[in-house]
Design a protein that fits this description.
16 helices; 4-stranded antiparallel β-sheet
């Protein structure tokens, strides 16, 4: 057995809404992320990593199960993972591995998700989540669109306090585990909420970026707004940007970078505990995020679109059998976490999953495609994306597609979606996408499932009277 296949412990670290380009190891010239940079230096960093749906709940369902959102019925932030489909947590626990979660999960709440223990979990509100977001073709009025701009800046936040609790809980857990060398193999699922909005950073972290002007802060975030029917709808329904002036944009970006630096410090605290307890040599480590954030690029904030800022995520793996200091351009996605967790801990399963182990991919890139879909708030049609080679193909049900060559157009400013010179490329990518699913069929399934949830919760008038959920509150 090679060291690449030696069973070890697993420390899986997840953040929320981390735009991968806002990391030192991904080339950002301002943001300070020394701990993530060090993790990348002792492992492999993937430059083309993606979530499978750019919004929290479906993305986390795919991450848990290794299946696509349409395969598990996690369409939006009101159809959370219920544990009905086996997760990699279930598979590891069934094989005798201790599987412990600390922090945000964003599942339904009271089901069996495969953990031997859940510590300070955060799940969707009332087991239902954001019901108002189910109205996609005829949206309900959305309050609080100015919150991202109004609340951004230095200060104290419930999410910041929660993340410190998460790091402290993980540190103490690792100390106890390190004192029990005869303990079973473990997988620790550590899930932070930063840098998800509200964009509020500790004063000291905010101050690291206080002297930078807007042009410096917005480097790589100045692409023009596309004139595309589906994206025009999204921008109209989620028009956060109209609440920003340039001064507020600068404040928000400083706060976001400050949150990243704070998050990095908490990750460093946990990695130090792993080292100090003598567990580092027997533990593989993964870092990623559930999706990115547009950060004002193209006049978009939040996620929900298929551009790199929103769909892309950081992905770093380190440990035994993983090449050190390697940068891989192999396309990967969050459905690869499940087979990676199985491989990292030496758990065999008869379950067939569409993903692949990041350990194997780090040792030898494959010619592969990655897939994503979106059926949630801000969209009036199903959206499907395929990344293969240099190409990103985005199909919108009922309207024109998009096509980008990311080798020559990394900022996605030259849309070849209707260019007749690329008809063959689009046809080939559309056929590849249909090996995963039929967009028309899945789009109809999503709308039908959402209509059922609306009816089960009293219909439009009842849901319209409920409180808005700008973000899921942290547990007290």
């Amino acid at each position: 057995m090679t060291n690449r296949h030696t069973p070890q412990n697993l420390l899986f670290i997840l953040s929320d809404e981390h735009n991968r380009k806002v990391s030192g190891c991904y080339g950002h010239r301002l943001v300070q992320t020394p701990n993530l940079d060090a993790l990348a230096a002792r492992g492999t960093r993937f430059t083309n990593a993606y979530c499978n749906s750019p919004i929290c709940v479906p993305s986390r369902g795919s991450l848990a199960t290794g299946l696509y959102p349409h395969q598990i019925g996690c369409w939006d932030n009101a159809t959370p993972y219920t544990g009905a489909e086996p997760s990699w947590h279930h598979m590891l626990r069934d094989a005798g591995v201790d599987v412990v979660s600390i922090g945000k999960l964003h599942y339904r709440g009271d089901d069996d998700y495969g953990f031997t223990e859940e510590l300070i979990p955060l799940h969707v509100v009332d087991g239902k989540g954001d019901l108002k977001g189910l109205f996609r073709s005829d949206p309900l009025p959305k309050a609080g669109l100015d919150d991202i701009a109004v609340t951004a800046g230095p200060g104290d936040s419930s999410y910041g306090r929660y993340d410190h609790r998460i790091a402290d809980t993980a540190t103490e857990w690792l100390k106890r585990r390190g004192a029990d060398p005869e303990g079973r193999r473990f997988a620790l699922f550590l899930s932070f909420v930063m840098p998800h909005f509200p964009m509020i950073a500790p004063q000291a972290d905010y101050d690291l970026y206080a002297d930078y002007g807007l042009d410096q802060l917005r480097e790589g975030l100045t692409s023009p707004s596309p004139d595309h029917p589906a994206l025009n709808w999204t921008r109209t329904q989620m028009n956060y940007d109209r609440h920003f002036d340039d001064a507020q944009r600068a404040v928000a970006l400083r706060a976001y970078m400050g949150m990243i630096t704070c998050l990095d410090r908490l990750i460093g605290q946990v990695l130090t505990a792993l080292e100090d307890t003598g567990l580092s040599g027997s533990t593989r480590v993964i870092y990623t995020s559930d999706h990115g954030d547009n950060l004002g690029n193209r006049q978009l904030w939040g996620k929900s679109v298929m551009y790199e800022d929103s769909l892309g995520v950081p992905m770093i793996i380190a440990g035994q059998g993983v090449p050190e200091g390697k940068v891989s351009d192999c396309p990967v996605s969050l459905i690869d976490i499940a087979p990676t967790a199985l491989a990292a801990t030496g758990v065999a399963t008869a379950t067939s999953l569409p993903g692949a182990s990041l350990i194997d991919l780090a040792n030898g890139a494959q010619d592969r495609a990655v897939f994503a879909e979106y059926h949630a708030i801000g969209s009036n049609c199903g959206v499907f994306a395929l990344r293969k080679g240099p190409w990103k193909y985005v199909e919108y049900v009922g309207t024109q597609p998009q096509l980008f060559n990311l080798d020559t157009d990394p900022n996605e400013e030259c849309d070849l979606g209707t260019d007749p010179n690329y008809a063959v490329v689009r046809s080939d990518l559309a056929a590849c996408l249909r090996q995963v699913c039929d967009p028309d069929t899945v789009n109809a399934q999503a709308f039908a499932a959402q209509a059922e949830v609306i009816a089960a919760n009293g219909g439009r008038s009842v849901i319209a009277g409920a409180s808005d959920i700008p973000f899921t509150p942290a547990p007290v």
